[in-house]
Amino acid sequence: MAMGMAMAMGMKRIGLLFLVLALVTCGERAERFGAADDILVNDPSVDRGNNTTQSETAVARHNDVVVIGFNDSGEFTRRNSMTGFAYSLDGGATFTDAGVLAPAKGGRNLGDAALAVDRDGNFYFATLALDARARSYVGVAKSTKTEGEVTFSEPVLIPGLDADAFQDKELIAVDVSGGRHDGNVYLVWTEFPLRGPSRILFSRSTDRGRTYSMAEQLSSGREVQGAMPVVGRRGELYVAWEDRSGTTGGRIRVRRSTDGGQTWSTEYAAASFTRITERTATSACYRPALNGFIRVNEFPSMDVDRNSGDVYISFAADPGRQNRGDNSDVFVVRSTDGGASWSEPVNVVKGRAVKENGDETRNDNFMPVLNVGPDGQVSVFFYDRRNDSRNLKIDVYRAVSTDGGRSWVNQRVTAESFDVPPLNPNFDPLVKSCYMGDYNDGTADADGFYLTWGDNRRVLKAPRFSRGRPDPDVRFRAVSFEP
């Protein structure tokens, strides 16, 4: 989400812009695994100096049009927007780097890309935004063209509950159920007031993105973040988020609406866990972090089986007593009753539920993305370090289940591992130390799964790094369903 959330608390509105600037970073389509079929999405030739960070991906697809959003530090000083995007008109075989999403007049976009698409092929692109007076908003732009190129309108700015607060980490969903709320646009995010606890906010549009409702609070916890919305097969709306109110523990909270976001259920507890931490990195970063000074979180990634109605959530967490010495594994929980009750967390990278290619190391697995295909197949992809004895280099793996999450098979997505760039201090002067992105993204349709992630495999010679350094780019891969 924002390349640096920020200590917006305690700052005056006039100083918000400068605070954010200091902390933010804002081939061929693959049909099977085994070859280096992932596609470079961004155009590295437009990067300048060490402002070369592309990270925090978002993806949406309609027919052959694929749009990918990402944080792009190289464009910020030139175009007042950290929110980059690229598009494909051939189903993801090739991409055009379109630059950045233009900000509202006199304002700036601060990244945290989020994308969704309706049944008619209209794309909705959410971003963190500032207005001309440096006040913090969530902005949502709608596509204005998807033939020959993809373009977007100026973002509609949506305020939080507190005009002086910082709005952060927004995600978006569109109802495509065909029901009475079809076409509704749903937005959730975290508001950080100058004083007091963070809170999860919600807004919706019932007129195809022209206007949005006043923000309302969904959460009750004191330290909440990382909210995600998803729409089920009958138009039911779920929102999940992380509650970090404990010292070392955390919970995933869920609320449900069956009337298009007008009224909500009570909060359900989907999972409890021990938060991720690696002692040396966490001490250096002053926040939970893993080896290589990569800041981490336990944000939920959620989707719904449109056949059964079952709801799935994945998250990374410290496995604790399940495997001592392991800092982070990936877990999945499942609800068969609309979110009221949840299964015990299942480790999808190792243990009894993993039937093939499990991780036999104690290395890190983190930042998962969960999608459910139209046939009920569940796919979770994540960063993985099992191939490096030093627990440093990263691959992308995925865990696949075809039996409702009871058993899992692990598969390697990337054909080569990539290194961690210098993060503490960060090589990119626009990016906060210890930042390598807070999330990746994926989606699914009748043809398969579409994965996009931040990837550091390209080595770049740049100022202060004459011998080269790993350079964060955006990669994409399309994957057909398992037989």
Could you explain how this protein is built, in words?
The protein has helices at 13-23, 76-79, 279-285, and strands spanning 39-40, 54-62, 65-72, 83-88, 96-100, 108-117, 123-130, 136-145, 151-152, 156-158, 166-174, 185-192, 199-205, 216-217, 224-231, 237-243, 249-257, 268-274, 289-290, 294-295, 301-304, 311-317, 329-335, 346-347, 354-356, 365-372, 378-384, 395-401, 408-412, 441-445, 448-462, 465-479. The protein has 483 residues and is mainly beta. The chain starts with 12 loop residues before the first helix and ends with a strand. Mean pLDDT is 91; it is low at 4-36.
Give the SSE map:
Blueprint: H1 13-23, E1 39-40, E2 54-62, E3 65-72, H2 76-79, E4 83-88, E5 96-100, E6 108-117, E7 123-130, E8 136-145, E9 151-152, E10 156-158, E11 166-174, E12 185-192, E13 199-205, E14 216-217, E15 224-231, E16 237-243, E17 249-257, E18 268-274, H3 279-285, E19 289-290, E20 294-295, E21 301-304, E22 311-317, E23 329-335, E24 346-347, E25 354-356, E26 365-372, E27 378-384, E28 395-401, E29 408-412, E30 441-445, E31 448-462, E32 465-479
Parallel strand pairs: 25-29
Antiparallel strand pairs: 1-32, 2-3, 3-4, 4-5, 6-7, 7-8, 8-9, 8-10, 11-12, 12-13, 13-14, 15-16, 16-17, 17-18, 19-20, 21-22, 22-23, 23-24, 26-27, 27-28, 28-29, 30-31, 31-32
